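ping. complex inputs:
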Amino acid sequence: MSDHAPSPQELVQITYQPKGSTDWLEPVATLSKGRYCYSAAAKNLNAMDLPNPREWQPFEEDWKLPPDWQKIILNGMQARLKKFRSFRLFMDICVRCGACADKCHFYLGSGDPKNMPVLRAELMRSVYRRYFTVAGRLFGKWAGARDLTVPVLKEWFYYFYQCTECRRCSVFCPYGIDTAEITMIARELLNLVGVNVNWVMEPVANCYRVGNHLGIQPHSFVNSIEMAVDDIEDLTGIRIEVPINRNGAEVLFVMPSADYYGSPHYYTLLGYLMLFHEIGLDYTISAYAAEGGNFGLFASNEMMKQLNYKIYAEARRLGVKWLLGGECGHMWRVLNQYMDTMNGPADFLEVPVSPVTGTRFENTRSTKMVHICEFTADLIHQGNLKLDPSRNDQWRVTFHDSCNPARGMGLLEEPRAIIRSTCNQFYEMPENTIREQTFCCGSGAGLGTDENIEMRMRGALPRANAVKYVQQRHGVNMLACICAIDKATLPTAMNYWVPGVEVGGVHELLGNALVMQGEKERTTDLRSEPLKEKEKEAPVHA
Amino acid sequence: MSPLRAGIAFLLVVLVAALAYFGAETAAVRPLLADILPYAALVIFLAGFSFKVIRWAWSPVPFRIPTTCGQQKSLPWIKANRLDNPSTKTGAWGRMALEVLCFRSLFRNTRAELREGPRIAYSEDKFLWLAALAFHWSLLFILLRHLRFFLLPVPHWLLGMSALDGFFQVGAPGLYITDGVIFLALLYLLARRFWDAQVRYLSLLADYFALFLLLGLVLTGIQMRYSDRVDLERVKEFALSLTVLSPHISAAVAPLFFVHLTFVCVLLAYIPFSKLMHLGGVFLSPTRNLANNSRIQRHINPWNPPVKVHTYAEWEDEFREKIRAAGLPLEKE
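pong. complex structure:
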């Protein structure tokens, strides 16, 4: 743990009593280290033709804003008020009832009143009132309005990058006010004056040019996949083939790039590949559209569209019939709620039909993109897979609903169906912390970087706390999830708050349980850990 | 800051009351309050309210962004949640009806508490929902009851409704249930802004102002009915005269009624400029009123912007040697 992060014992000394002395209309004086991300490097802004590339850091006094920055932001607000009903409406109708206040993981983990979703939005709303409403123009601070000053802008940067766009607050809001929407607009506005974070902009720039977040070039991409093929052979004795950039396949499979360069994501990749081999899927992956993740979502709607473009373009080039997508949270927000609108219509594709079960995925008949959990759950339900759940007996599993599949899609039962069929020991966390009420990992929306570690651990507290509950009660040692950012950041959070709990993908569990034709007897799981000795016990499906 | 804001809001409402009270006793001001203010308030309300709603309605909804609060419709054997995650227009209407009539989302409210351990405990917290629901439904009933001042003869349904509201027949005249309920609900909503440290911290003057104004309105109404009774016949004459655009108020109507009337007018005129616009806005919220069917049916963004993209051909040109070395197929050799 870096020197910015206090110990869990120190960090949990949280008071939810806002200090009465400072009015929230006053911007915070200092940005506290460990609670923000570093600035975006100029080269990444240049790569995306973004304004004001320069060297600067949030902890410096002078942010080197353009001289007319205030005008730029206000014009940007005006333009977006006209383009997004959500923005104008959410600026106008909040009644400050406070129902959202204690629903935010960052507020629960920090006690900082400006992390209450309502106040996070008020940071923007106060400026909206000042320049765009009668009451605000006339009565200023008495109407909750304030001038757009440099400290206010800094506060925007601080708090709109302390929001993971997880939408939990929006579930509880009587008007459905979605802080994610406000944060997205705020980040677009900040982009206009060159205030962005590198952990968003570098993946965006890499993804745009090379095709994935880390900028892994085609030959290294192929190497990673070959390594997976070798590992699967070691494990099962079966040499599988993974087609890349193959013309005329039936299905293009797109996964988050972390699946082929990250750990524990990699075991999920093994799971997918074993499954595709076993059912004889006619598919290909692409080295060009090698990223399902889309950090453009965390930057602006235009950047999201720029990156998302590649998926349909590649599907068209390769002449596939339909698309299948891997385990990733924000990727699925984009695929489910934005892709067709932005880069459709996908009229050159066919309505997805499972070649094994014949199931027609009517719920994707316009987008033509199926979630891997929908696909696999269908295979299992129709009895097309031979599974040995005892090969997951080393795991006592709980499932973390990732924010976007839960609240931007409603993919709740499909992954659970897979887990129930592949694991004997499955335990749910308390109901206020799962499904549509799930808590964010605390590192989503481009905040998962090391310098932000204190805030990440604070944000992870509610999730970790629920894991701890099932750890103590049921001995849970595996937190399963379907999100690449979860897999990248929850291990750190578990280590910090609930040591002894591993993080893994649902298709890793599937890969363990999947009995493949002609496989040798397995002695280890996908992680090369020895399997648990089989006990003479009836399997328990919790 | 918050007590100061609450104090000023309270004084503003007292000021409105005082102006109305003494205005009613001043020959020059009395006709202004009775004959002009109601029309002015109504015009401001209608114009302002429509302006805002039309402006919202005309701003595009570029993306289909419902907040899904239940299982999606996917495979036939998985039961979809048709109301909290609707996949059809009918479902979305159902969701809106639940939201508007029953405050579905507020019903989910919980309270989080950090206990020793550390352990975060979540408990049900239905009071806000209950108070909000009680307030809004009572307000609707009371508004409808007031129609009897504007209609001659009073329709049967209205009489029936009023009778139902006065079902318990406590005291004379019979106590309306809604009068008691709206008063208690408002009191709770106000008290919450003082007691709850978080809500107190974030509350603005406008939040207190709306509550004090509504409380003033309710209290003057109750006072006129149960203690300082006004001449209802004369009030009805006045109400009817308003509807035919020849306002006239009898000298017999007491100043207390003017306070009540002025509160109504201030409230009406204030709505378009305030958070009370949630009354219209709730119907237009794109996270609630859209079906989660963006994979089934393409949603159109009217301003879908052209963007610069990195095409396959450009990518291949840039990485040609590496692609070849990796043994991947090339479009152009």
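Chain A touches chain B through 119 residues (CB under 8 Å).
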